[in-house]
């Protein structure tokens, strides 16, 4: 068996194999692609009948500071540069009019943009990350422990 086969070594754990795969995919994007993706995504968001007004209401006319923050965010997520220093949960908890269906729309537009800008496996990676982060934001924003309390459901 050739030694250069990734993950092919005897006794190699599933976890190590996953890491090699993940690193290879991570290098498949770069800062330029992130910037193109973020800009194209927020063009769609701004012209979306449902999401547009929510963002415009908070961000106003000058989108550059938000876009720069999002370049840093995605650079941290995809290239582990650590450039983003913000608190996404806190920013989203302030958005009282946002509901889970808005997240579905957000993810649809994000998937659409990633498919237009990136190679298929890179688009998948961006979308998987976005979906996981969306899930955790939604847990913070909408999860009501009382609804899932078995004591209450028996009553
Ligand atoms: C319904 C879906 C979403 C809506 C309506 C939404 C809306 C917004 C708005 C209006 C801001 C600006 C907040 C401010 O400047 O005070 C913001 C910031 C941000 N959003 Fe979202 N967002 C959504 C989903 C997501 C998802 C899924 C992600 C990540 C994958 C994300 C990542 C961020 C980040 C990193 C910031 C910057 C926070 C900061 O440091 O100030 N958002 N979002």
UniProtKB/TrEMBL annotation:
Q: Which SUPFAM superfamilies match?
A: Globin-like
Q: What is an example of a GO molecular function annotated in this UniProt entry?
A: oxygen binding
Q: Does the keyword Coiled coil apply?
A: no
Q: Which Gene3D superfamilies match?
A: Globins (1.10.490.10)
Which of this chain's residues are annotated to bind heme?
Answer: 66
Return the InterPro entries for the record.
Answer: Globin-like_sf, Globin/Proto, Hemoglobin_trunc
User: Which Pfam family, any one, appears in the UniProt record?
Assistant: Bac_globin
Record's protein name? Globin
